[in-house]
Design a protein that fits this description.
Largest sheet: 7 strands, mixed
Number of strands: 16
Oligomer: single chain
Strand content: 5-15%
Family: Belongs to the beta-eliminating lyase family.
Shape: globular
Enzyme class: lyase
InterPro entries: ArAA_b-elim_lyase/Thr_aldolase (IPR001597), PyrdxlP-dep_Trfase (IPR015424), PyrdxlP-dep_Trfase_major (IPR015421), PyrdxlP-dep_Trfase_small (IPR015422)
Bound molecules: pyridoxal-5'-phosphate
Strand order of the largest sheet: 2-8-7-6-5-3-4
Pfam families: Beta_elim_lyase
Number of helices: 17
CATH class of the largest domain: Alpha Beta
EC number: 4.1.99.1
Distance between the termini: 52 Å
Length: about 450
């Protein structure tokens, strides 16, 4: 059966068509950091899939019904009920975005000297653990380190390694086990239900809370249905619910699978823990029935949650990511395999072997994509993850030099992705012409968001 995209554009936004000269100038002004580019100079924006999707006409229609009363607004109850369909926890607290949910829950669960174990902590998640004086320890499935392996669940947590920590001298310091679905820091790879069941049994046996970082719960459920034996006939809603039931709680940014520019939640069964979180939410986000969100946003989220678990939508998402990966391969650029759903991760280290990690090949490819085609994307390599000395020289490189092409939901069609493939092919024809980079301004924290760089001559 040929694939039919299950929606069309109802409202459109013009994208700027720029010249190479304009882009060279824009990149100079931005200190060669794509995060500093004004969006009106970007033609295809693949920097993030977070909050960048297109909303549906049904979401817009519901948003008109936003009830903005301070407490107990109708919009809150509609949002809570739609969320509870998917996330069957006793307590659901709204907050404005994922990192707020992390801050509130981790403050209640962790503290100085505690440990958070995870398949991979996402960058803001790690920051929210570390700011409490706690340790964020990643224990991913070792398959994650073979970029070319087609293992279907490279996002899994290493259960044996978790058991070893719990049994060892640090065991009593573990405050939570956090499983990120899908594993964004690990290439958007899914976590299997078998792995979730195993870690859930271990966490319950040891009395350690198991928390999901569930920003892409629907995408994870879809990849389970597509890849895990025994789940092929289940619906995305059933699989999502089952995943949440295996955990004790969740934090989730709904800027991804809530199909909304804003929103997140904390979900918990434990009433005492939920009470402590509620006090923090009221003090820092907003009353417990809005948590910083408008009534319109809560209505939009309720409808987004209904749309995101439809098989047609998720099948289209899979098709789109596979198409972009196929275009990259056609251009001669390898990607992390197998492709996930929220983005395609390019292996810049392999494409640009003339650049050492100290010359930041991932960053060089991200800048080349903008310079040659007005395409914005993010480096996930030594600029972001490497360790530098006081002279900004790289001392420990990242394990891989990657570039993430994140896919905003329902925004770009095949012609846009084909264009990305064509620009990549132009770069791949003459990779030695791509210059390396050096850092000119290196802020002490959150370097990749804030640094300035310049090309090496
Ligand atoms: C896995 C994961 N956790 C947490 C977050 C943080 O969410 P937010 O951007 O809504 O603060 C993100 C955002 O990209 C994410 O991908």
């Amino acid at each position: 059966m040929p694939h039919l995209r299950p929606y069309v554009s109802a409202v459109v936004r013009r994208i700027p068509i720029t010249t190479r000269e304009q882009r060279v100038e824009a990149l100079d002004l931005a200190g060669h950091n794509p995060f500093n580019l004004p969006a009106d100079q970007v033609s295809i924006d693949l920097l993030s899939d977070s909050g960048t999707g297109a909303v549906s006409v049904d979401q817009q229609a519901w948003a008109q019904r936003g009830d903005e009363r301070y407490a107990g607004a109708e919009s809150y109850y509609r949002y809570r009920d739609a969320l509870r369909e998917v996330v069957p926890y006793r307590h659901l607290l709204p907050v404005h975005q994922g990192r707020a949910a992390e801050r509130v829950l981790f403050t209640a669960l962790l503290g100085e000297g505690r440990i958070s174990l995870s398949n991979t902590h996402f960058d803001t998640t790690r920051a929210n653990v570390e700011r409490l004086g706690a340790e964020a320890r990643d224990l991913p499935n070792q398959e994650l380190f073979d970029l070319d392996s087609d293992h279907p669940f490279k996002g899994d947590i290493d259960v044996a390694a978790v058991r070893e920590v719990l049994d060892g001298p640090d065991g009593h310091r573990v405050g939570q086990i956090l499983v990120t679905i899908t594993n964004n820091g690990g290439g958007g790879q899914p976590v299997s239900m078998a792995n979730l069941k195993e870690i859930s049994a271990l966490a319950r046996e040891r009395g350690v809370p198991l928390i999901l970082d569930a920003a892409r719960f629907a995408e994870n459920a879809w990849l389970v249905i597509r890849r895990e034996a025994g789940y092929e006939d289940r619906t995305p809603l059933q699989v999502s619910r089952e995943a949440f039931e295996l955990a004790d709680g969740a934090v989730a940014s709904l800027k991804k699978d809530g199909l909304s520019p804003e929103g997140a939640f904390i979900g918990l069964n434990d009433t005492e823990l939920a009470d402590r979180c509620e006090v923090d939410v009221i003090a820092t986000e907003g009353f417990r029935t809005y948590g910083g969100l408008t009534g319109s946003t809560m209505e939009q989220l309720a409808q987004g949650l209904r749309e995101v678990v439809t098989p047609e939508y998720l099948a289209d998402r899979e098709h789109e990511a596979a198409y972009l990966a196929e275009r990259a391969h056609h251009a001669g650029v390898s990607t992390i395999r197998p492709s996930g759903l929220h983005g395609v991760y390019l292996n810049a280290g392999r494409l640009l072997p003339h650049l050492s990690p100290a010359q930041f090949p991932g960053h060089a490819l991200a800048c080349a994509l903008y310079r040659e085609g007005g395409i914005r994307c993010a480096e996930l390599g030594s600029l972001y993850l490497g360790t530098l000395d006081e002279n900004d020289q790289l001392t420990t490189p990242a394990p891989f030099e990657l570039v993430r092409l994140a896919l905003p939901r329902r925004v770009y069609d095949h012609s846009h992705l084909e264009y990305v493939g064509e620009v990549l092919a132009e770069i791949a024809k003459n990779p030695e012409s791509v210059p390396g980079y050096r850092i000119t301004e290196n802020p002490p924290i959150l370097r990749h968001f804030r640094c300035r760089t310049e090309p090496l001559s």
